[in-house]
């Protein structure tokens, strides 16, 4: 049972699901946007009530939730727009076939530019397809990025509050410096798409923090 994922039939099933995933993407995006729009008002109400009650924890959680909502709405709307463009391009390709740049009678400069930037119709549709899938995946990954930022802020805040009370000052400064170095290295590696993992000397330094 545990070896089923190694069978060719299972791999074909995954390939088929991957090719037809756009239907699920649109369905999930539509339901998600519908629910997100209805959650804006309750979240804002909680945010206002927490500010009146001076409830820091509830206010922070409501702020995080509000960021999630607007972030997801923007990304999912962008995803639906690009998917619509993708579907329209497929329909246009079915009618017109491949792009014949010579029949357009453009000047040589524009013809060469469009061939280089747009390419064939299939390449153009493929680029939109990849972009749609990436935006859909990133939309939900961004949730974890925002959560991690708030977790880091709370840890730094906790270290600052415990200085001299629970922890001695030198331990507080040590952890603060160590933690800050770890945050900086992780951020550099993230922005550089795994840059610190690629070289021997940087990977040696970064591995304990990772």
Question: What does the model show?
Answer:
The chain contains seven helices and no strands. Helix 3 runs antiparallel to helix 5 and helix 5 (121-161) packs antiparallel against helix 6. It starts with 7 loop residues before the first helix and ends with a helix. The protein is mainly α and 210 residues long.
Largest β-sheet summary: none
**Helix fraction by DSSP (H/I, runs of at least 4):** over 70%
Give the helix/strand class. mainly alpha
Principal-axis shape: extended
- For the secondary structure, the number of strands is 0
User: What is the arithmetic mean of pLDDT?
Assistant: 78
Note the total helix count. 7
The proportion of strand residues reads: under 5%
Terminal CA distance:
34 Å
Order of helices and strands: HHHHHHH
C-alpha-based Rg, rounded: 25 Å
Uncertain regions: pLDDT < 50 for 5+ in a row? Answer: none
Helix/strand layout:
Blueprint (H helix, E strand, L loop, with lengths): L7 H12 L1 H33 L2 H41 L11 H10 L3 H41 L7 H23 L8 H10 L1
Provide tags for this entry.
7 helices, 210 residues, single chain, mainly alpha
Briefly say what this structure is.
This protein has helices at residues 8-19, 21-53, 56-96, 108-117, 121-161, 169-191, 200-209.
């Amino acid at each position: 049972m545990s070896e089923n994922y190694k069978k060719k039939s299972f791999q074909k099933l995954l390939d088929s699901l991957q090719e037809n995933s756009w239907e699920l993407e649109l369905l999930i995006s539509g339901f998600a946007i519908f629910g997100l729009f209805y959650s804006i008002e309750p979240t804002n109400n909680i945010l206002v009530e927490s500010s009146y009650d001076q409830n820091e924890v509830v206010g922070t959680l409501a702020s995080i939730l509000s960021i999630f909502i607007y972030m997801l709405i923007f990304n999912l709307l962008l995803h639906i727009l690009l998917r619509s463009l993708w579907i329209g391009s497929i329909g246009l390709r079915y009618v017109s076939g491949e792009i014949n740049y010579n029949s357009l009678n453009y000047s040589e400069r524009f013809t060469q530019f469009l061939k280089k930037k747009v390419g064939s119709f299939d390449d153009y549709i493929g680029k939109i397809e990849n972009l749609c899938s990436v935006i859909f995946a990133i939309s939900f990954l961004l949730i974890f990025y925002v959560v991690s930022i708030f977790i880091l802020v709370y840890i730094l805040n906790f270290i600052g509050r415990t200085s001299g009370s629970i922890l001695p000052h030198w331990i507080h400064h040590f952890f603060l410096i160590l933690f800050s170095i770890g945050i900086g290295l992780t951020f550099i590696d993230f922005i550089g798409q795994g840059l610190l993992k690629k070289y021997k000397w940087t990977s040696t330094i970064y591995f304990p923090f990772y």
